[in-house]
Amino acid sequence: MNAAMHVKQIRVLLAKPGLDGHDQGAKVVARAMMDAGFQVTYTGLRQTPEDVTRAALEAHADVIALSSMAGSHLAFCRKLKPLLEKAGLGQKLWIIGGNIPKQDHDALRELGFKGVFQTGSRLEDITGFIERNAA
Amino acid sequence: MNDRLRPALAPVINESGIAVQPLYTEADVAASGGTMMLGQPGEYPFTRGIHPLMYRKQPWTMRQYTGFGNAADTNERFKYLIENGQTGLNVAFDLPTQCGLDSDDPLAEGEVGRVGMAIDTLRDFEIAFDGIDLDKVTVSLTINGAAPVLIAMYLAMAQARGFDVKALRGTAQNDLLKEFIGRGTWIYPVEASVKLVGDTIEYCAEHAPKYSPVSVCGYHIRESGANPAQEMAFAFCIARAYADEVIKRGLSIDEFAGRLSFNFNIYGNLFEQVAKFRAARGLWAKIVHEQYGAEKPSSMWLRMIAGGGGSGLTFEQPELNIVRGAYYALISALSGAQTMALCCYDEAYTIPSEYAQRLSLRTMQLLIEEMGLTDTVDPLGGSYYIETLTNQMRAEMERIIKDVDARGGIVSLIADGSIQAQVSAQAYQRQLDIDAGRFRKVGVNCYRIDEEDPKVEFHPYDEANAQEQVARLAEMRATRDAAAVSRALAQVKRAAREGANVMPAIVGAVKVYASVGEVTAVLTDVYGRYQEPVRF
After folding, report:
1. Mean pLDDT across the stretch B469-490?
2. pLDDT tops 80 at residue B107
3. How far is it, in rounded angstroms, from Cα B450 to Cα B437?
4. How many Cβ atoms sit within 10 Å of the Cβ of residue B87?
5. How crowded is the C-beta side of A38, counted as CA atoms within 13 Å?
6. Contacts of residue A99 in chain B, CB cutoff 8 Å?
7. pLDDT tier, A8 (very low <50, low <70, confident <90, very high otherwise)
8. Neighbours of B106 (CB within 10 A)
9. How far apart are CA B132 and CA B138, in angstroms?
10. B25-68 pLDDT per residue, tens
11. Hey, which of B24, B93, B116, B159 would disulfide with B385, CB 3.0 to 4.6 Å?
12. What is the pLDDT of residues B120-142, one digit of tens each?
């Protein structure tokens, strides 16, 4: 589906969780999302679970996307899940990408991260997934 | 070849934007500027190497990036690498340490000891380097935001062990400006960061004159999306910003330039990288001599670690990264680097295993022992292609530096996020080119296979180990001289407030076991914290 055909523009909150400073991938994905017609709010580095929740509310996000390269994704997502649910964001599309070992994918899906995008994912696979799954 | 006889060929443009011809002759060398900047190895402008005999006298230092868990775990890996022939250490710190947070900080939860070694106080440094002869094995600390504190700890630890700090060699990365472009372990605002780099250079020039307090990194700027010519040009702009800061305080260029070092990337087109390094050596010498008036040859030397190559490695078919690593090492050796480190084949998956680290080390040793890379200086020198490309790369770097200066200088372009936006736009374009198959990556957009699970040994994260680190810090806080710590931290604050050099006070504080987080908190009280301009 062409992005222009959406009645409402998809709003994405893209965040860098934790202390990881590797943001090249996040910025690349942010640009790809904008080119796909989404409205993107990128948080910048060093976001706590509370920061991400607040930013998602402020951005009226349909999609909450995390980019994690330094291995602390599971611990972070376990803290984030109850906060997002409490904030009424439980039905939004949660996705995560980056350096995420395959053995963690199921645990992330069980936590509610519907899309898990490993290093090497094609940009159109990410944006296509969002177009198909965002409310 | 006459143009009319030349068959129609698809153009080849290298990453730095230079068109590559199918054949080079003497005429191309002349047309690109001739051999004016070539000189002899060990002589100005050092294009062919900073020493007359280069590797024939001493091979490059081998320095794999290492660190995980706590100081004792890392000490064990250090000793393993030294036993296997490694000649230097390159220390990886965990993210809390890099961001100036103690292991018991709420923000550190889940990150303690994960991507590097956790350091809270001088006690950890004592354990990390226990039994290692710091005169024989030089140590490079990959630390930036928290560098003033960790340099102080390193010097204090060495002094307590009885080493002569005046003669102590070693390096700290401590390139705070590039952290705003790539890597992201900034702490203080941009201006304060430049001031702190100036403090470390000034302090070391007096107290540890053989120590290299800064390693200016093109490396991470390249990883963030810069092309090879921009990598060098932006790094030189940053190095000039630090030099200006120190000269402003009354030091002469020859009092500190000899201890500036550099860190560059080695992935990409082999010939373009070799030309990049040769060009950069001549250009840096020219800048330091002509613009800054340096007279000492050592001030003009581009001393560098050329290594890594992370962005060139792939998640797909990870064993290909072993082969890529060998070519990257070849690039580094052909380029006359002083130090080499290689990203390991498993790094897209995990902290490198002992096995992967050994493979990287052996890769470098193969070049020395079997391939003849240390036999002769600048073995590609005199190639029509390499000399032409060296001239062209140097001209391109000079053009970029002029452009940065015309746009207001590197510090303001970093502060307002312009450089970040420029390189991230390029990174996006590169990813589009990879996705579309225009920029070829073997195993990614060509020669793909259906892969089984890769044979990679995952480095486990030990939560109990992190708890122990937190407990050790609590014990230290309970047993150290609390009054001495308070007094020492007050001194740090006073120095920062008065705009004095903070290093003497920080050295005093770490000696009484003030922690990384405590010193950092005092400094952020005065300087504030960096607010990231979110531009992409």
Report:
1. 98
2. yes
3. 18
4. 18
5. 33
6. 348-349
7. confident
8. 7
9. 10
10. 999 999 999 999 999 999 999 999 999 999 999 999 999 999 99
11. B24
12. 999 999 999 999 999 999 999 99
Tokens of B105: 């900080």
User: How far lies B341's CA from each of B64, B84, B307, B357, B487, in Å?
Assistant: 5, 15, 5, 10, 41
Nearest to B286 by CA among B504, B47, B82, B457: B47
CA closest to A74 among chain B residues: B110
- The pair of structure tokens assigned to B534 is 């979110």
| Of A109-113, B351-355, B388-392, B394-398, minimum mean pLDDT range | B351-355
- Dihedral (CA of B1, B2, B3, B8) sign: negative
From the list A120, A135, A123, A51, the residue with the least C-alpha distance to A87 is A51
- Long-range interactions of B435-442: CB distance < 8 A, separation 24+: B435/A122, B435/A123, B435/A124, B441/B314, B442/B314, B442/B317, B442/B320
- B208-249 tens-digit pLDDT: 999 999 999 999 999 999 999 999 999 999 999 999 999 999
CA atoms within 13 A on the CB side of A105: 11
The set of residues, in sequence order, having a beta carbon less than 8 Å from that of B526 and lying 6+ positions away, is B493, B496, B497
Over its C-alpha atoms, chain A yields an Rg (Å, rounded) of: 13
Interface test with B, best of A23, A35, A102 (most B CBs within 10 A): A23
Q: State yes or no: pLDDT of B516 exceeds 70.
A: yes
Residue type, position B57, single letter = K
CA distance A104 to chain B (A): 12
User: Does the CA dihedral B266-B267-B268-B269 come out positive or negative?
Assistant: positive
Please report the number of interchain residue pairs, chain A to chain B, with beta-carbon separation below 8 angstroms: 89
Residue of B nearest to A32 (CA): B428
Angle between helix B418-435 and A24-35 (nearest 10) = 70
Q: Provide the pLDDT for residue B3.
A: 59
Do residue A24 and residue B182 have CB atoms under 8 angstroms apart?
yes
Strand, coil or helix: A66: strand
Cα A134 to its chain centre, rounded Å, is 11
pLDDT at position A7 is 63
Average the pLDDT over B496-521 and give the result: 98
Distance of CA B438 to the CA centre of its chain: 30
Q: Per residue in A56-102, pLDDT tens?
A: 999 999 999 999 999 999 999 999 999 999 999 999 999 999 999 99
Alpha carbon distance B249, A10 (integer Å): 53
